[in-house]
Amino acid sequence: MTEQSAVQQDAALDYQPPAAEADEGIQHSLFGEILDWMLAPLLLLWPMSIAITYLVAKSIANQPFDHALEDSVTVLAQQVRAVDGKVIKGLPGSARDILRADDIDNVYFQIQGPHGEHIDGDRDLPPPVLDEEELPTSANVHFRNDSMHGTPVRIAYAYVRLEHPPGSEAPLALVQVAETLEKRAQLANEIIKGVILPQFIILPIVLALVWFALARGLSPLAQLQERIRARGSDDLSPIAPNQVPEEISPLVNSLNDMLARLSSSIEMQKRFIADAAHQMKTPLAGMRMQSELALRQTDSAEIHRSLEQLAKSSQAATRLVNQLLALARAENQPQAGTSMQLLSLSDLARSTVQDWVSASFAARIDLGYEGPDQPLEIEGNPTMLREMLSNLIDNALSYIPSGASVTVRVRSDEQHAILEVEDTGPGIAPAERQRVFERFYRILGNKAEGSGLGLAIVREIAHQHGVEVEIYNNPRATQPKLPGALFRLAFPLPPEPPIEESEAPYYG
Fold first, then answer.
1. Where would I find the HAMP domain in this sequence (predicted)?
2. Which of 17, 110, 174, 340 has minimal Cβ neighbours within 10 Å of its Cβ?
């Protein structure tokens, strides 16, 4: 065996056939599924209806022939009497011939005396089997199924009360008439043919009508599909729900809700892109102007001044890009899932404040932290929460004058872990407190540098954690002209783990 063939053989042995496609990934046909659920019960019930029809037909076929047998037993019983203690029959030969006259079935009869002695008829006709406690009665004609010479027969029998001396028990003679089941089977077959044969004609018609009804009933879906397909790529207008059947209205309403959300999202994206492009123009235009001015300068001092302005414009553009990326990350962060974990809000706030100490020294602002001695835990995304708190601190440092103070505080009540960022700056007017969370919104008259995205990022991250950002005046402000601002976020405390039985306190 060559080396190449050995490699091919090993590859063949290592080959594993592809796994079968999961049933969840297979697209199902609504038309076919409805058709299956309608036709499958119909095709299952059809054999049952045939079996029930056969049983009913046999019952119907038995009734007239049982009446005939009953009449024969009654007539034959009238011919049996006792004379001098002996059972005699008054059945003439012509009556016997009439009794046995049948072109299809074989007819048998038998007369037995009180002690089982044979009086007349067919000796081989089996007698009825009675229980030990059951006594024969002469009240009615009874029926049973049995066999004669290996052939199934239907037997009608009755007990005839004979004359007897006074004071003694009346003897009973047995009279039986039996016939084979040929006529009954023929009649039952005729009944079945009369019922089943039309079903063979009706069933294809029913199938065709079901097919046509389903196609007609599902046609509004096809029409809705054509109307949606005929729309332009930018047409997000709602679909008229009155043009579809009532059963499809919930689907159309849900689709209209999705179109409305999609339209709103597209409008927000367009506005965001337009605002971002407009905001990027300023630092880019400044960088271009300063670079062109530096190229025309010959004095080194002027060149240095232009380069400083160029660095400031570059820093502003970098900050704007970073804010845009942070906002994009916040908007694409899932509200719940693997990104959420149990973390210490107090430890996160303390470390974030430490990151901004040097920036507060440069701005000559007192930055402090107040928190509990024990860690205060919540469920959240540590990266996004750190970004949110950094934007709150940055916003406070940017909009308050030198000599003011900023305090980051972590505390708790019975149900919430509360994060607060307060400052002693000019504060935010109540009319502006909702608008400051809009993208690129800047309070008029404020000359502080910024992109207008910091508080938008804060609100988006807070929404991702299921909390709202509340703005108040600083209750600890001491100067009327500087009411300060207080940003507050209340995070729900995670549920306490159940106490194990072994850890439960014991009170003796």
1. 215-267
2. 17
